[in-house]
Design goal:
Dna Ligase, domain 1; 10% strand
């Protein structure tokens, strides 16, 4: 009676490893794949964000924009987009938060060059390099006339009381748009007091005066 020979064992045909099909291994593999996907996606997002951050902006020509006092980071970002300086206020705002430069942004009047990037805009509004204006107070004006002159300037804001006569120094003052009139009067008063103090220190000893006022 013929007997069949046993089939030779094929070493290539192996049963799947039990460890490979273990739930923990499968979960670990899925987590690794997910994290890898996040890393790649995050890298692409970071690259895109940096590209947009440094790319030329939409501004066709140089423009002057006033950032009012009391504006928050989002307010400034939305204002710059409305003025056409940037085209993505959210990216500007997010960049300010990530780099912690939001609190460094300053109010004032800025000149933005054509095609300025978001990165350059951020540098400008955190530099404090705002447009400087001048207002001249000639000698011989009364305090009331000085206040009238300040009230005529559209660069200044807020009301102003009339100080006592002789307490304001006539001079040319550098100001920025939006400065309060009371601030200018305070500077004029402080400068006048400094001048009087210097003159008093250099006075002749025989002058019949008891104070610099």
């Amino acid at each position: 009676m013929a007997t069949s020979e046993p089939k030779a064992h094929d070493p290539k045909k192996r049963r799947p490893s039990k460890s490979a099909s273990h739930p923990a291994v499968m979960i670990g593999s899925a987590v690794f794949t997910f994290l890898l996907f996040l890393a790649v996606g995050g890298g692409l997002a970071a690259w895109y964000g940096h590209s947009e951050y440094t790319a030329p902006g939409p501004l066709a020509q140089e423009k002057t924009v006033l950032i009012p006092r009391g504006q928050g980071g989002r307010d400034i970002a939305e204002l710059l987009e409305r003025e056409g300086v940037i085209d993505n206020w959210l990216l500007f705002f997010a960049s300010a938060q990530v780099t912690r430069r939001g609190q460094l942004m300053q109010a004032g009047e800025y000149i933005f060059p054509a095609r300025v990037s978001i990165a350059r805009v951020m540098d400008l509004v955190t530099s404090g390099k705002v447009i400087q204006h001048q207002i001249t107070i000639p000698e011989g004006l009364t305090s009331a006339q000085i206040v009238d002159r300040l009230n005529e300037s559209d660069l200044l804001t807020g009301p102003a009381r009339v100080p006592p006569e002789g307490t304001l120094l006539p001079e040319t003052y550098n100001i920025v748009r939006g400065t309060r009139r009371e601030e200018i009067l305070a500077r004029m008063t402080a400068d006048q007091q400094k001048v009087l103090k210097d003159l008093w220190a250099k006075r002749a000893p025989d002058l019949p005066l008891k104070s610099p006022q």
